[in-house]
Write a structure and sequence with these properties.
single chain, about 190 residues, alpha+beta, NADH Oxidase, globular
Length: about 190
C-alpha cells in the first residue's frame, strides 16, 4: 500500500502543464486515449449526474477545429485589435497536438444539482485525465481562452442551451516538456480546527 501511495503522489507532484507549441506532433495511440477517458469517467460527482462530455479532435479533425477557432477569432475581433500572428498561431499550434479533447458540461434536465457542482465534477474528471496522461509520459495543457465561452463554439460542438464548453485539453508528446513548477507551502493555505 505504501508503494501505491508513493506512486500516486509522484504522479500528482510531477504532473506539469506543457503548452501545445512545445508538442512534437507524435501521435498517441487511441487505446491510451480511451484509457484516459475511462479514468475521467470515474470522477466524483453529486447525484451520479456524470455531467462530463468530451468531443475528441484528431487527424483532420484538428484542422477543422483550428480553422474554426481562427476564423471565429477573426470574425469576432474588431479590425484595430486583430493580430495576424495570433490568427496564425490559432491555425497552427493546435495541429502540434495528437488529440484535443474539448471539455464540455451537460446540464442535467431537472437541475437538481447546482451548476457550479456540475462544473466542479467536470474539473475533477479533467484532473483524472491529466494524471493518467502524465503516468503515460504524455504532456497535457488545459486551455480555456480564446473562443471557449462563445455561443458560436457551443453551436459548432452541438451543445444544448444550458450546456457549457469548459476549454480544450491538448494532449501530445514533447521533446522538451515542462518539468519545473513550485507551490507555496500547504501550511500557508490551511486553517485547522480541532
Amino acid at each position: 500500500m505504501v508503494d501505491l501511495v508513493a506512486q500516486i503522489s509522484e504522479v500528482i507532484r510531477s504532473r506539469r502543464s506543457t503548452k501545445p507549441r512545445l508538442f512534437n506532433g507524435d501521435r498517441i495511440d487511441d487505446k491510451i486515449i480511451w484509457e484516459i477517458l475511462e479514468n475521467a469517467n470515474w470522477a466524483p460527482n453529486h447525484g451520479l449526474t456524470q455531467p462530463w462530455r468530451y468531443k475528441i479532435f484528431t487527424d483532420t479533425g484538428l484542422e477543422k477545429l483550428a480553422n474554426f477557432q481562427a476564423d471565429l477569432y477573426q470574425k469576432l475581433t474588431p479590425e484595430e485589435k486583430f493580430k495576424p500572428e495570433k490568427y496564425e498561431r490559432m491555425k497552427t499550434n493546435l495541429l502540434k497536438s495528437s488529440h484535443v479533447i474539448v471539455i464540455c458540461m451537460q446540464r442535467q434536465k431537472l437541475e437538481k444539482i447546482l451548476e457550479i457542482e456540475e462544473i466542479e465534477a467536470v474539473a475533477c474528471s479533467v484532473q483524472n485525465m491529466t494524471l493518467t496522461a502524465a503516468a503515460y509520459g504524455i504532456c497535457s495543457f488545459w486551455g480555456s481562452g480564446g473562443v471557449t465561452y462563445t455561443e458560436e463554439l457551443k453551436e459548432f460542438l452541438g451543445l444544448g442551451e444550458k450546456d457549457k464548453c469548459l476549454g480544450y485539453l491538448y494532449l501530445g508528446y514533447s521533446d522538451n516538456p515542462t518539468t519545473k513548477s513550485r507551490r507555496d507551502p500547504i501550511q500557508e493555505k490551511v486553517e485547522w480546527f480541532s
